[in-house]
Design a protein that fits this description.
Elements lengths: L5 E6 L3 H12 L4 E7 L2 H11 L3 E4 L8 H7 L1
Parallel strand pairs: 1-2, 1-3
Length: 73
């Protein structure tokens, strides 16, 4: 975590849920949503670039679900 607070990457295959979660987290002081991803595979590619402190993960997504992403990390 840096001086700017907690950096979050929101991972969900449903665009509406990504937006709802990102908006809710952005409203929390000290939290910055640094990006979103539609599945775990995309998130794996974004993590080195965005360097999030925290991930929110959907358990059921196409290509790579949240639990598979955790296994890869």
């Amino acid at each position: 975590m840096d001086a700017a607070g907690i950096r979050v990457l929101v991972v969900d295959d449903t665009v509406t849920y990504r937006r709802i979660v990102a908006d809710a987290l952005s409203a929390v002081p000290g939290v910055t949503v640094v990006g979103t991803a539609a599945n775990g595979r995309i998130a794996l590619n974004k993590i080195p670039l965005l360097r999030p402190d925290l991930l929110t993960l959907d358990l059921e997504m196409p290509e790579m679900d949240g639990l598979s992403l955790l296994g890869e990390l």
